[in-house]
Amino acid sequence: MTLSIWRYAHFTLAVVSSLFLLMASITGIILAIDAVGQKLPQYRVENFEEITLSKVIPAVKNQFLEVNELTVDHNQFVTVKGLDENGEEIEGYIDANSGKIIGKSEKKSEFIQWVTSLHRSLFLHDTGRIIIGINAFLLFLIATSGTILVIQRQKGILRFFAKIPNEGWNQFLHVFTGRWFLLPILIISLSGTYLTLNRFKLFGEDKQDHKEISFPDKAPEQFEINAFKTFQNIKLSEVQKIEFPFTDDVEELYTLKLHDRELLVNQFNGSILSEIKYPKTVLLEALSLDLHTGRANSIWAIILGISSISILFFIYSGFTMSWRRMKNKIKNQFSADESNIIILVGSENGSTLGFANAIKNQLVKFGKKVFITEMNAVKAFPNADQLLIFTSTHGLGDAPSNATQFEKLIGELNFFKSIQTSVVGFGSTNYPDFCGYAKKVESWLQNQTWNQTIIGFHTVNDKSVNEFVEWVKSYNQISGTELSTTPAQYVNQPKALQKFEVISKTVVSEDCQNYVVTLKPSKKIKFQSGDLLAIYPGNEGKERLYSIGKVDGKIQLVVKLHESGLGSNYLYQLEVGSHFEARIVENKSFHLPNKNEAILIANGTGIAPFLGMINENSKLLPLHLYVGFRKETPIVKAFKYSLQTYLLNKKIHDFQFAFSREGNHCYVTQIVQNDAEKIASLLQNGGVVMICGSLAMYKDVIVALEQICIEKTNYNLAHFQANGQILSDCY
Ligand SMILES: Cc1cc2nc3c(=O)[nH]c(=O)nc-3n(C[C@H](O)[C@H](O)[C@H](O)COP(=O)(O)O)c2cc1C
For the FAD-binding FR-type domain, which residue ranges apply (predicted)? Predict the structure, then answer.
């Protein structure tokens, strides 16, 4: 809970100030580069730190007819203003040892002036300065709340720089840069805030005036300037500016503006006539300017520039993470009180909620009354029969922030009837206590009188969809539901889409609603038969997946046109030659193992990946295809025709068709059963069985295979499943 408060604070502050921070970072990078660039022409003298005014002032006076002022800038370059021997006005950098001009003083370019003005005040004068000042302070708060989040995440200040487990590129980037750039960002934000406050004199101004000086009527004797004690004691490095006396009038003085004080010095004997010390606010302002602009030190200027770049990274990675978190929201079609299945979710960053939502949506489609909520909202749901708990682990074996109250609440509640439960732990083996919190949840449930565990504790490492599908399969078996066991169904984050061209498409008939569509990716991409093509029809963000057969390097899909099918209608209405966007989803668990004999079992459109696998079988592995259709329609005849060609090329060893409405009047399960001996020996010799098509067919085939295993091998089907010899992609 506390974590959430800091996270909300961090996020809200970032949202409020992001546009300003974006502008301030980009202009800050430019100004940092300028600050480094300014130091490149070297007008700084070697002995800058040692040389005193008793050397510099006579040297300068020697070179010019008249000297008005001498300034020393933050680059330690000395500029003189005055008149040359010809009485011409002159302004330039000098060598402080000789007083000679060594370079022309240059004004800042218009571009840099423009950027500076945007950075400081958004061209809005005082109003702009206030806005920028507020944002500098917000940056300070963001950095502070971010530090607290890193400390909480790393479990203590002492572990601040401990290894960051890999939780995705964005999170890694955010935490990594956060730890290294925290200090410069705090300095940038505090100095920026101070400069604004000081500009509006919010710290008061206790600047003194010089005291009244009484001058003699007659000018005293002129001593040698290099003998002035005052000038001998002041180094050039202490000076900001020297204003020279205009004439040899007795009231004309040297005004020495040093870093910490201002002196009025007698031009005849060097005595100090008045001295005022600058107030602390002025000293702090100079320090803030040095720290905020990097003007005094090029290494610091480079650090400031890199820190500004890091702020851009923060904005990008922070918003990407938050978007992912928010994307997986809780939405319910049924109320808590009317629902029979309750899904409780413990999730910090939203990925577990993504898995839970995928299950909820499917169960609702199958007509179940399901309610999904966070674990902290657990209660004695009046109509609940089943409690599915999906939880991640955070900290070091701790609860995610929306599950922190669960232990207390579950200890207090009673359903007064038996409730079926199943716990799935989401975690990462990068952490010492893998799924530690989920394990605790499982043990708390075991202590409840009402608990009836229906599936043993399952874990999912690193958001692995394949591991999650194992739980889905167990759930399907126990509950009799037909939730999708296609891993890609649970992939949470759609990646960048690619363009595909429609190369050819067959037409459907009254007899046959299946059609074949061939596609070519616009750019070269890697894919293979058994992968999936995800399409997004109707711009509604809905995803539809189709099994790919790679035939002659192109994507071949076999699709059944459903009357109100979103995906099948979308693909069917695409013209040959037109383009559309989709993405390939790698489906490693349904790739043809490239050294084994294989039995391929399909019904209907499930033939698609197998046609591709056979086409690609350049190693001439012995492949046996069993496929079921209703009737021998023209499209099925075309499949048969190409299979006969593959037979001649030895790309397939044999194939059998089952027709449920004509011919041999049987289902594919039956032709599988007929070949029990062959299947048993293939499995015992390490071969694989791949199944693609409807879930109903899958269930029947699995029963048939179970029987074959028991009767004809020394093992049950689970043995071959565990060996990775039974692969499926059914829907
Ligand atoms: C700060 C932090 C601490 C974590 N601690 C653990 C842990 O102790 N044990 C574990 O198995 N996984 C740990 N994880 C991994 C997460 O549980 C895992 O990535 C999970 O899939 C995240 O789910 P969520 O996005 O729903 O929060 C941690 C992750 C983070 C970011």
Answer: 495-593
